[in-house]
Amino acid sequence: MSDQDHRSFAPPLRMLMGPGPSDVHPRVLAAMARPTIGHLDPEFVSLMDEVKRLLQYAMRTDNDLTFPISAPGSAGMEACLVNLIEPGDEVVVCRNGVFGGRMHSIVERAGGRPVAVDDAWGDPVDVDKVEAALKAHGDAKILAFVHAETSTGALSDAARLAELARAHDCLTVVDAVTSLGGVPLEVDAWGLDAVYSGSQKCLSCAPGLSPVSFSQRAVDRIRARATPVQSWFLDLSLVMGYWGGGAKRAYHHTAPVNAIYGLHEALLMIHEEGLERSWARHRLHHEALVAGLEGLGLRLRGDAAHRLPQLNVVELPAGLDDGAARRQLLDDYGLEVGGGLGDLAGKVWRIGLMGTACSRRNVLGCLAALDDVLRGAAPAAGKGLGVAAALAAYG
């Protein structure tokens, strides 16, 4: 390869309506382009305090240990589990999609003994099954579940599950990667103990950071460990000195300074809009999108009462070539929608309405593009009524 073959990367403009990342707001991109300063610079330390306060607002918590881990949501998942699990601990793990399964795997790797509570993909976690598992395993230390299952679009009852956990003297580990900013998430009111999320979903920030929050009960458990945490980088007893150390912070790692600029701006925008307005906006555009999809002859999976407004799982019509249709959407319209994972691969599309991407413009643009592609690839589904149905829902 000659030197002339190397050039700056110029990404195409896309409408990101898959399961994440979502569209990053121009204010966030502009914030990330600001001059880099040191991660222990007094000005950056002040920004860290501001990020913490804004995250506490977004997660509805006063937890002191609330901060972004310098890695994506999967690292947040791992951090919550490996810090709270010691070898031999029983952990009740709810599996109703890909990410509950990932929790199960991490519990095993951390030396815990997982007790699986399985539900069909697309269904919420069954509270009665969880209660039965907690009664049968009285020594369980943790209940782990996904609040908003990104692989299926199912929303589970985090408040009720946390209530059960407390009744059985268990801590909760909660996946809020897709829920934060899109649907109510009440960390303190629901009594959640260890919660992790991601920057790239309803916050409309770039991928790469994982907001987490730990209750005092969880912090006490971490401090009382008899064995060291298996991961040095994710060991919160060390990270506490950096993110929880006040003005005199102990060096732990070089924080991704510009990425945190972006997260700060994204959280500031959530604060300016107001959490309740953000939740209502996601609900409004979801209802219009659902009306439009039904106008196209498409069907959403799962019970409407348990569907995530920000992650819509659509069953594919018979005869549709999944990969070819999504490629046409990308090539002809610059529109990204997600395919199915695991058991749902090739059977569904996952259409995201998250953060900045959750707008009337995107809903109508998505429906128009789908109508065109479906007319050619699955004529029985492309009825040309999608945009009209969405407009009627808005009206």
Automatic annotation (TrEMBL):
GO terms for biological process: glycine biosynthetic process, by transamination of glyoxylate. Its cofactor is pyridoxal 5'-phosphate. Residues 36-340 form the Aminotransferase class V domain. GO terms for molecular function: alanine-glyoxylate transaminase activity; L-serine-pyruvate transaminase activity. Substrate binds at R350. It comes from the Bacteria. The keyword Transferase applies. InterPro entries: Aminotrans_V_dom, Aminotrans_V_PyrdxlP_BS, PyrdxlP-dep_Trfase, PyrdxlP-dep_Trfase_major, PyrdxlP-dep_Trfase_small, SP_NH2Trfase/AEP_transaminase. It holds the Pfam family Aminotran_5. The modification N6-(pyridoxal phosphate)lysine is found at K201. Its EC number is 2.-.-.-. Keywords: Aminotransferase, Pyridoxal phosphate, Transferase. Belongs to the class-V pyridoxal-phosphate-dependent aminotransferase family. This is Purine catabolism protein PucG. It comes from Enhygromyxa salina.
